[in-house]
Amino acid sequence: MRSLVRLYQFLRPYRIRAMVALILLFGMVAADLVIPRLTQRIIDQGIVANNLHVVVATALYMVGASILSAAFALINNYLSVSVAMGFGANLRSALMRKVQSFSFGNLDELQTGKLIVRSTSDVNMVQIIVMLSLRILTRAPIWALGAIILLIFTSPRLALIMVVFLPLIAGLLWLFARKARRMFFLVQQQLDRLNTVLQENLAGIRVVKAFVRAAYEITRFDATNEGLMNRTIQVSQLMAVFIPCILLALNLAIVTAVWIGGKMAISGHMSIGQVVAAINYLSFALFPILLLGGMLGPLSAADASASRILEVLDAEPVVRLAGSAVKLMQPQGQIVFEKVCFSYNGKGAEPVLLDVSFTAEPGETVAILGATGSGKSTLIHLIPRFYDVTSGRITFDGTDIRDLDIHWLRSTMGVVLQEAVLFSGSVRDNIRYGRIGATEEEVMAAARAAQADAFIAELPKGYDTVIGQRGVTLSGGQRQRIAIARALLVEPRVLILDDSTSALDIETEIRLQDALDRLIAVSKNATTRFIVAQRISTVLLADKILLLDQGRIAGVGSHQELLASNAMYQDIYHSQLGEPAEDKAGHHG
Fewer beta carbons below 10 Å: N end or C end of the chain? Predict the structure, then answer.
């Protein structure tokens, strides 16, 4: 249960309420434990002695103790729920903050489906145990300990029964706990898989329908769902065996106490009231153990969930922040790659980029061209430090980007990734996402530059139109243009477009490039542009074209230079444009 104990640090803001709840538990236990002693008094001094006054007075004491216990229980329940809900909220916030600190490398390993389960199902499981800790889990051992002490005072001989049965019951609990934790861990893992399959299916439902793969997806989901069902059944079967075994042990202990206590009462060594009180205390001592046994399942599940939560909280961001982060006063936007190598799993793994060296001067447009899998997206992901280089270095205005303040570095850049991700909210909110304080005129100017103003004007409420989750109500090209507008609004020193015009037609793309040129021309500071493209028409006017082949630079130069000297570029050019090199070169020159 070490994992659960570590998470209790999130209870600190609520420790006073938790302490009051625990104090009330002691009051509840005291009120409950006085009942058998009062029962003994009614029998021995009231019923046996034929004293009605004692019976009535003691019965009133018992009612008072019951009312007091109920009042303590009500307040305890309120405080327990309050503390547990606050604990859960703090834990979810901590997970969210941790995920926000992750680099792309962490997110590659801890996939979305797993993070969702840890932030919902796993947190709920631990939250329930926190609430029960302030109620049953703490009350039961206190109740048992108090009952054992009073049992010894009531009848030391009957108390010896505990010496026999306690080790037996404790052994059963230990065996169950050892087996249950592993099984609940497997249940949560299977829940991860189910969540991932469900998320993929819902996110890609249009693709599923387009390729008529509904039957396949249903089969895949059913297989995962059945796996979760089988794991859950195994846990239930374990509980089905465990609970009857515990009940058998408890009933045997009570039968033994009745047999021994009855013989002692008949022989005159104990009063009838003492026997009844002793049997009650024995039940009070053993019944909490049954409660704890029933809680071992959820407790084991919560411990497994806690270890999975700690896996996220203990994860170190792959991209480490510099000890003394530097912020450049007047960034120019020069980016230099110096013998950069990169592998997704660090040194020793298969390299994605090999010995990449080039310079992008301030204001230059650098186009990155190459076949699928050549490392284009990986290269531009290194510039804002989504990943760190395996060897070599990247400099920003002469300073190693690993020495720069990472938040400052990224704030100087506008990034449009391959998948244009939008958020639920208005069009305006999505464009302002990187610069909340932008004026209406600046938002509209960015939209015009991104060639988005025309279709925005046709939307039902213009910039106030609420788009669906992830921009599902917009076309691919519309999402890309809003994403480009979002990047332009931050007035970046470095603009990164990762194949972000793939969904645009050629005419719109040309207008977009012209608008970007005009926007940058009137800007106070030059903007260095990196454009990843599949279409060669996108890169013709770039100042520098970087040709990648299997992670290596296969050529660097302008369109005319590469067309004249690079066979690989010539092949790409002819395969896409299908015209003689000299004609097309003359047309675009």
Answer: C
